[in-house]
Amino acid sequence: MSQDTNTETLIVSELEASTGKIGVIKLNSEKTLNSLTLSMVKGMSSQLSQWEDDQDIAIIILMGSGDKAFCAGGDVQELYKSAVSTPGGPCIQGEAFFQQEYQLNYQLHTYSKPVICLGNGIVMGGGLGLMAGASHRIATESTRIAMPEISIGLFPDVGGTYFLNQMPYNLGVFFALTGASINARDALYTKLADYVIPWSAHSELLQNLQKVDWLPSDNHTLVDEQIDAISIKEKSLKQLMTSEIQTHHALLESICLHQSLAEVLFEISQYNEEDRWFNKAQSAIKHGSPLSSVLIYEQLRRHRHSNLETVFLSEFQLATNIIRYPEFAEGVRALLIDKDKSPNWTFKHFSEIPCSSLEQFFSAPWKKNPLELGRTKQQ
């Protein structure tokens, strides 16, 4: 190891390889399930920029401390503090977090060198944003992926508008509206992960990567070969876990083919069988923010075919409007602050939301979008 830089919440190191080096960024906040803070986001972005221009760095690895989680998302309680300190906005700290986070997400999606994400354990919200941007997304036998923003009056952001719209059979609609949790096999099926490896083998993977003679550029194929050598193949994966997505495929496809939010929600509500996974998804919609359900559906619909840059610009606009509105603070209060789990949502049913209120969320709150996405690279 030629370099090892420790901060309170981020560990940055460089591993020597046969030729070149491997940059490693480890989220280091195990007690908070490696939830992202503004300083962590800034540190990651700065380090990635430095490594991209460093010819010695061949590949990047993203991982989390501990065995429970890669990353459980953003530090929502800090966003809450920003929202309640200046009702109606601008919410300086909260908006700065979204801005920096989306810049980091875009940076990962467009990064020129291979980025391996070890998505072990809990991968939620902002954690999935990091994983989705990596070129090589690895799940493990304990991976649990979810985007449960409807429960706090938010929406699946961090590029979710882009990668959820890429899920097959339009399944991203169900995933976004319900915050449904999926495992590694589901992640492969829905194209949220590229490989599954045993978590016990991740140290072996790092050691194998150090033995590679890395090329001056374009090492993606070499990375594929190393991960594939220790990955769990489909036949073995079936024996390890059940795919809820495949089990419920016909039902989910039928739901997601509907052309309106009302039809989607109606069909979800009509399912009346005892089914723990699906019933939990139903409960999330029942108790989640009706306003969020409309914003989620509209954001996905309006940007069904938008490119990556447009998606992030639109997400920052929507996130800014949401954090300035009381719905988000109330959702966080009920779930994480007072923990009474009884949010007083602004609207009791999505049908009560007037079009004028809806359009306010999709209208720019400033003359120019302050999100800077840097130089454009090949997608």
Mind explaining what this structure looks like?
This protein is of the alpha/beta class and 379 residues long. It has a single domain (3-361), classed as 2-enoyl-CoA Hydratase, Chain A, domain 1. 47% of the residues lie in helices and 12% in strands. It is built from 18 helices and ten strands. It has helices at residues 38-52, 76-85, 92-109, 126-133, 160-165, 172-178, 184-189, 202-210, 220-230, 234-240, 244-247, 249-256, 261-270, 276-287, 290-302, 308-323, 326-337, 355-361; strands at 3-6, 10-16, 21-27, 57-64, 69-71, 115-119, 122-124, 136-139, 144-146, 195-196. The strands form two sheets. The protein has a seven-stranded mixed sheet, with helices on both faces. A hairpin with a 3-residue loop joins β1 and β2. α3 packs parallel to α4. It is globular and about 65 Å long. The mean pLDDT is 95.
